[in-house]
Design brief:
The protein is of the alpha+beta class. The chain contains five helices and nine strands; from the N terminus they run αβαβαβαβαβββββ. Bound molecules: zinc ion. The site of zinc ion has 9 residues, from helix 4.
Length: about 260
């Protein structure tokens, strides 16, 4: 069975052909956030009838000549909006295939919240050199290596940064340079790593102020959207410079691609 909006093949089973839509229309935001649209979610891997989720995570390097490499690299460059950080080079991009349990959990969750999905970046810490050597892209066993942990066992809200303006959730963004701020790496590597994810945003709550103590979205919502300038701690205090979206459920996000890059 294939849905019409491009996310791809679903296995037979509990998937509804009539996803539940929440009443409000999906708002359109200026700039990169116009990506909030199901129809733009084209992920060739999943839409291949040959694709079945693996039993253990798989990383596959995309060739530079592949259209997926070009597409993701362009998105990464176009959404690099910080003028005080300069992207130097995109070294490698990997197709990250999570195991079948995570794959099904994400799709089940997404179905539950109306299949409103968005492709969003997330920067995390890497303690190993995963991806530096394409012939040996093996996940490490260091439990402090957030990158390998995410690919192996999924995102965990339990590891969320508690200092976030939108509470203890998983932070994602349409702005690649914002995700890059949170990408730290092993001293042995010249690359930083950002993950490109599919996120089941469901019904989004537009934050009107800080929500530092939140551990879930307000009742009736599935995610919280922080708009630049809107979410502020008051005059003279820190406010969001760039868009971010916070989710509070481990199953609401799946990493799809891993981008290795350098900054000037
Ligand atoms: Zn690692």
């Amino acid at each position: 069975m294939q849905y019409g909006y491009g996310y791809g093949y679903y296995p037979p089973g509990p998937w509804s052909t009539n996803p539940i839509y929440y009443g409000a229309p999906i708002p359109q935001f200026p700039g990169p956030d116009n990506e909030w649209s199901r129809t733009l979610l084209q992920f060739p891997r999943d839409s291949s009838p040959q694709f079945t989720p693996p039993s253990a995570p798989v990383l596959k390097r995309l060739k530079y000549s592949e259209s997926r490499f070009q597409d993701i690299a362009s998105k990464f460059r176009e959404s690099w909006l910080h003028t005080d950080r300069k992207l130097a080079n995109i070294g490698f991009i990997y197709d990250c295939q999570v195991d079948e349990t995570l794959w099904y959990d994400y799709r089940e969750y997404s179905e539950r919240v109306g299949n409103t999905q968005a492709p969003l970046w997330h920067g995390t810490s890497r303690k190993c050199t995963l991806g530096d050597d394409p012939s040996n892209a093996e996940l490490c066993h260091n439990s402090d290596c957030s990158l390998c942990q995410i690919i192996k066992t999924g995102y965990k809200t339990g590891h969320a940064r508690s200092s976030g303006l939108l509470g203890s959730g998983i932070y994602t963004t349409t702005v690649s340079s914002k995700a890059a701020k949170y990408a730290t790496t092993s001293k042995k590597s010249k690359y930083n790593v950002v993950l490109y994810n599919i996120v089941a945003v469901g019904r989004r709550y537009n934050a009107t102020g800080p929500m530092k103590n939140a551990s879930s979205p307000p009742p009736g919502y599935n995610s919280v959207y922080g708009n630049p300038g809107v979410t502020s701690l008051g005059p003279g205090k820190r406010s969001l410079q760039f868009i971010e979206t916070c989710i509070y459920d481990d199953n609401a996000i799946e990493p799809l691609y891993m981008v290795l890059f350098t900054e000037e």
